[in-house]
């Protein structure tokens, strides 16, 4: 078990994309939480909330800069351009790793229950490197969202991907876990699948998810589907195996069809079946295109990975995010007797 410092320096890592409507209330509520955690000996005075601007097009970064000047709990990180939620979250976690004993990631929309932050830190105090925030239920979701979300988690399990059911990105990670996370170099990020691979001691905190305080969701259906496909293709090759099995099955069916055609020919029953032929052609053509598309998805993943482009680029920092001191150059007398 790791040697944990207590009370720890805690960084709340909050990715922000066009969050000007909700950000003032988010900072207000989190400031109260940070003050309470420090007062109760659960967080050190050096703790901070790190707001990561993921290339927002509204006044999000201006608000973050103002908060950094006015609120000692707030520091900010501005990415050079929009890189998506997972990359923005990773940028914040890697920055927090340089300053904090542990980091808690959460969304800016106040849907995650910040009242359980103390429960996260109690689990950390007990020796957990990773603590997952798990929803008690999905009663507040629409029928469509609830059904698709539950189907996604079940599909990931069937495909052999180790994900925590009803867990998004509300989690605590110790510095040791963050160091381990930094060793994963995937360009196609799916942190919900990567974090369980770290393997250190973990536990769960259950909470009720609230309605969004203000603004609009940054995850419409199109992005949700893309995110789900990223998770599946980044962590499982079973779709490729399914294609192989499907090819074998269709080959057997083709052999059976050929035998049927030969037998029909020899017994004199050779009535042309135009409908059957056309349907067969369309069916096989559709299946082939689908299989090519799945294989192409994996090839595309390989293409983006082998280029190894930076996952994010930091443009600016605000608040108390000071760079680590560079090592002093050795004097000539130190190297030459």
Describe the structure.
With 337 residues, the protein is of the alpha/beta class. The protein has two domains: 10-218, Spore Coat Polysaccharide Biosynthesis Protein SpsA, Chain A, CATH 3.90.550; 238-307. The protein has eleven helices and eight strands. The chain has an eight-stranded mixed beta sheet with strand order 7-5-6-4-1-2-3-8, with helices on both faces. The chain is elongated, with a radius of gyration of 26 Å. It starts with 9 loop residues before the first strand and ends with a helix.
Number of domains: 2
Helix count equals 11
The CATH topology of the largest domain is given as: Spore Coat Polysaccharide Biosynthesis Protein SpsA, Chain A
What's the arrangement of strands in the largest beta sheet?
7-5-6-4-1-2-3-8
Q: Give the helix level as a range of percent.
A: 40-55%
Strand content: 5-15%
What Rg is obtained from the alpha carbons, in whole angstroms? 26 Å
Distance between the termini: 44 Å
Contiguous runs where pLDDT drops below 50 for at least 5 residues: 322-337
Strand tally is 8
The average pLDDT value, as a whole number, equals 78
User: What is the class of the largest domain in the CATH system?
Assistant: Alpha Beta
Order of helices and strands: EHEHEHEHEHEHHEHHHEH
Structural class: alpha/beta
């Amino acid at each position: 078990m790791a040697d944990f410092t207590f009370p720890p320096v805690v960084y709340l890592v909050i990715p922000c994309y066009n969050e000007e409507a909700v950000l003032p209330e988010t900072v207000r509520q989190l400031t109260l939480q940070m003050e309470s955690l420090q007062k109760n000996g659960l967080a050190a005075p050096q703790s901070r909330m790190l707001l990561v601007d993921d290339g927002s097009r509204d006044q999000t970064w201006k608000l973050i800069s103002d908060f950094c000047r006015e609120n000692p709990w707030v520091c900010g990180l501005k990415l050079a351009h929009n890189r998506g939620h997972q990359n923005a979250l990773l940028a914040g976690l890697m920055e927090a790793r340089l300053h904090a004993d542990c980091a808690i990631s959460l969304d800016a929309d106040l849907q995650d229950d910040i009242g359980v932050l103390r429960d996260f830190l109690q689990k950390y105090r007990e020796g957990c490197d990773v603590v997952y925030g798990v929803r008690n239920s999905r009663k507040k979701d629409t029928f469509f969202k609830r059904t698709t979300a539950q189907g996604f988690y079940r599909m990931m399990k069937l495909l052999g991907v180790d994900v925590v059911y009803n867990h998004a990105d509300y989690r605590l990670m110790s510095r040791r876990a963050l160091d381990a996370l930094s060793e994963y170099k995937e360009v196609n990020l799916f942190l919900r699948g990567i974090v369980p691979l770290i393997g250190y001691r973990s536990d769960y905190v259950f909470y009720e998810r609230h309605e969004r305080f203000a603004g609009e969701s940054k995850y419409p259906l199109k992005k949700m589907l893309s995110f789900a496909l990223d998770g599946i293709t980044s962590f499982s090759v079973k779709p490729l195996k399914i294609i192989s099995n499907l090819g074998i099955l269709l080959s057997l069916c083709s052999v059976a069809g050929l035998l049927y055609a030969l037998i029909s020919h020899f017994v004199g029953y050779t009535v042309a079946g135009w409908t059957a032929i056309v349907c067969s052609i369309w069916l096989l053509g559709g299946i082939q295109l689908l299989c090519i598309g799945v294989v192409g998805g994996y090839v595309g993943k390989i293409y983006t990975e082998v280029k190894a482009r930076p996952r994010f680029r930091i443009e600016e920092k605000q608040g108390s995010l000071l760079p680590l001191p560079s090592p002093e150059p050795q004097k000539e007398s130190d190297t030459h007797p």
